[in-house]
Amino acid sequence: MKRGVQIVLWLLVAGFLVILPQLATTNYLVNVMITTVMWIIFALSFDLSAGHVGAVSLGHPVFYGVGAYVTALVAPSLGLDFIGSLLLSAFAMGLLALVSGIAFFRISEVSFAIGTLGALIIAQLLANNAYDITGGPMCTQNVPRPVLHIPGSGPVTVVEPVHYYYLLLPLLGLAILIYWRLTQSRIGRAFAAVRQDEVRASAMGIYPKRYKLLAFIAGAAIIGALGSFQAQYITVVCPSELTISYTLNLLIIVFVGGAGSMRGVILGAVLFSLLPRLLEIVTDVPPAWQQLIYGLILLIVIRFLPEGLDSLIERALQRLRGTRTEAKPDAA
Amino acid sequence: MQPERPPVLQIQNLTKHFLGVTALQDVSFELYEGELLSLIGPNGSGKTTLFNCVTGFLKIDGGRVLFKGEDISNLRPDKIALKGIRRTFQDVRTFPEMTVLENMLAAVQQHQEENLIARMLGTSRIHHLEHTATERARELLDMVGLDNVRHLEARHLSYGQRKLLEFATVLMPDPDVIMLDEPAAGVSGEMVTHMMNHILNLNRQGKTILLVEHNMRLVMDISQRIVVLDYGRKIADGLPRDVRMDEKVREAYFGH
Fold first, then answer.
1. So where are chain A's domains?
2. What pTM was computed for the model?
3. Please, what is the average pLDDT of chain B?
């Protein structure tokens, strides 16, 4: 795609996202939008290591939950504002990813997946049982809401979902930018090299662990910031933010959408967030049945589209460009 | 007999055991600048083990490896590669989901290893380097006859084409030492000649090459010197015609 066309497309998407809440008539709809954007960020941060360096961290929600706790428990005592809290959580989770990554990347890929899953379960146990610090199942309450200082008027506390939505959009932009720059640059080529053949990558002077850590840390920092946002949005942080069902959701989003593809991951996150809402509207499907439907979708996609829904789009685009590709002698 | 040139690679008393089995025992030899040296021996004689020890993929149990006088024993493989020793693998390795051209470019990107931020921002200097690398990649691909398939993913190439691609990628950073592990194994007769010609041409341009080969006949004509391994020990080291006549070598290969 030509660069100009790409920029126009991105601007259109950005404009659409900015106008979208104006079309929403109820707070419920705005909440659906916020949830959708959050799942996009969540899935992109997960896909950085799962889809690009082939390190599937089943414990990825640790960085989300602990990031939320950092904002709830540490940021207020430091007197940090909305952005300060976001940065603190992002930094803390990046650091946690560095330290844990050095240990986790010493083991094989399968052990890595299981090991990180263990870390998630331990984190939730700790959050549930460290009453004095986290409040246990009673949750950490009263996380301060963001306060904006608008020139000309006094400080404004953010309460309305629509305002939260606008605070969340820049985070989405940043997540997309980091994801895009990391995966489309020469670093992305090293990621792909490490994923496709670690031995050969080493023989070419690429140190696999460095790139695995880079993807792991970047993903953790992004999701740590999102956890911080969540804490300041809901104003309560509970051990349920460290649930294994987030991991399952991430696996569904990324592998149904298309691992390693930004377009696929975003598509997966949007479908995953909106489908249940549509099911609610169309038919009164009970939540238990929804899980069944997800399971079926996952099975069908993995059986018939192992590279995810994105491979369908890719094929369609290739067919559109078909005439041009055939004209090139190189493609033969 | 030994050339006047300085040794680039010195292998000194290299020893390697696997669970008590001796894979290499006190192997020593030198590779001189501009030389084409072949390492031959029957299957299981330790040729690939030696390759893996020199390039850091296996830990050395005894002895050491010097590169331009510097001890590189047991360094990490990526560090050894960046110092200027590049290798191919016997079981041909390419990045299957990358195009032929991307495979080539992946071989040099670590020149900018130190500057992660600049690479992420994609500064103009980086763009310039990328452009230069692409030009070099296409020259090399043209040389091995793969330029017309440069946009094809490597997994769609034939076995022989992948061998050629792997060969071309090790040339990308213009390394000081090129180590080729059975570059002609498993390819058709015509491709073997093709490959051997490439290697010979490369050496004529002044490149230092260490070649592992199972088939003695293939390397007789192109090698300047031959080292023979048998059961992990060096049994001969010399000019091709002397090695061919060597009693121990004949015994190792033909059993009489």
1. 34-242
2. 0.88
3. 88
